[in-house]
Protein: Translocase of inner mitochondrial membrane 29
Amino acid sequence: HVYHASWVRSFIQLIKPVNTTDVLTELGLLSPWIRSGISDVHVQSLVKLRNEGRLRHASLGLLSVVYYADYDPDAMLYEAQCSNLSVPWREIPQRVLDIGFAGNWWILDSKMKDYDVNEDEFKHLPVHMQVTSPPSVEKVERNEKLHKDSWLPVSTERKVKRSSLALTHAGQNMQTEEPRD
Structure:
């Protein structure tokens, strides 16, 4: 029974609904000037729907669906309670906000990609600076070699030879010069 209970608990965690609090916390740690506008707007809309009681979650086994409703289920308005005024089935696909499978939310994950990069920051740059391309293989290999070489100990042997050679020449010049009166 203990094994079964832990499996059920882990399965429930696997299909849990969108946890907007965790995502909001991640975004909240960033300055508004840094966070992605796409991520921010999406998460703020999910939080607004959740706060209004309109965010719904339906678990279909391993697949979960998050959608929005017109009213909070506790609302005592006639429109909210009348089954004849409920949403027609053909409108349900337009109300789907996200689809989850095994704990991963596809739309939320795609909107949260690069949530810490504000694309609007780069709009004032010239076009050639707005888009970056990956470096060539040769550039990567050159940078890796330079990085590797930067960790090698500095050899002072050449400097010692040069300085002793310079001292030898200076000593010879001193001997060949005659003192002036």
Strands lie at 55-60, 63-68, 96-101, 104-105. DSSP finds nine helices and four strands in the chain. Residues 2-137 form one domain. The mean pLDDT is 77.
